[in-house]
Design a protein that fits this description.
The protein is α+β, with helices and mostly antiparallel strands and 263 residues long. It contains five helices and 14 strands.
């Protein structure tokens, strides 16, 4: 009886040892799993480099005299300025320091109302750092002089702070919704831009029209044009016009804002 019990037990042990040996042989002959190469992180894009001198010009306001000097260097715009000065009974050379009404140009605003701001010295508007305001008595509130919209902007998240810090953006289309005094007047429109606009249109109470003779500023860092604006009456005490600026797609244009100056 004892021998009958030992014999099956020994058979089971031999069978288990056979399976264990076979498993080891298969493991030894199985090719080793190839390791996948580690994924290499992509290098971060570099922040755009802007020539420091160009950056300063894009950020600065354009003085009235610089705009006048630029326009005087072009025969068509010079003739326009001479006609305006003749009608106002002042010398064309005085336009750098006097308004068409004959008053001296002062950088100090006369008050907080829309028509008391220092339009004759020039008002700078930009996306981040230059957001002038005026007081609107009818609503007892402070409002923005202008709102800028930019389109076709290409920004990497890694260096968006670079654009915000410098207040300069890469774009190919810009729209300025501008509040102005109600009285029609002649304005100098300077755009702080590294490239010449392909076109610039204005919408006011007159039919939409292109602004002609857009000239590179003699001080560089932008372009200037001369035009008469007849603002729409948006609501009591608020008068608007819309300026639309376009560039050829593909240009790496840098935009730093507008300076709007009333002659």
């Amino acid at each position: 009886m004892k021998n009958k019990t030992i014999l099956p037990l020994a058979s089971i042990i031999v069978l288990c040892l056979s399976f264990f040996t076979l498993a080891q042989e298969r493991a030894a002959t199985k090719p080793a799993t190839q390791q996948q190469p580690a994924i290499q992180p992509q290098p971060l894009p570099k922040a755009p480099t802007i020539d420091p001198a160009m950056l300063r010009r894009l950020q600065a306001s354009v003085p009235r005299a610089a705009m006048i000097n630029t326009l005087m260097g072009n025969p068509a715009s010079r003739a326009e300025l001479e006609n305006l000065a003749k009608t106002a009974k002042i010398q064309v050379g005085e336009l750098s320091t006097k308004t068409l009404g004959g008053s001296p140009v002062s950088p100090t605003p006369q008050g907080q109302l829309i028509d008391q701001l220092n339009w004759s010295a020039g008002i700078k508007l930009s996306m981040i750092k230059n957001k002038p305001t005026f007081f609107h008595p009818q609503s007892n509130s402070t409002r923005s002089v202008g709102r800028i919209s930019i389109y076709g902007v290409h920004l990497w998240s890694e260096y968006i702070s670079h654009h915000i810090e410098n207040d300069v953006f890469q774009t190919h289309r810009i729209i300025l919704d501008l509040n102005l005094p109600l009285t029609p007047a002649t304005y100098l429109i300077a755009i702080h831009s590294s490239d010449m606009p392909s076109e610039m249109t204005i919408a006011d109470r007159n039919p939409n029209r292109k602004i002609q003779n857009f000239l590179p500023l003699s001080s560089a860092g932008g372009f200037v044009a001369l035009t008469t604006i007849v603002p729409h009456v948006y609501m009591e005490g608020i008068n608007i016009c819309i300026i639309n600026v376009g560039y050829f797609i593909g240009l790496q244009n840098l935009f730093g804002g507008f300076t709007i100056t009333r002659l």
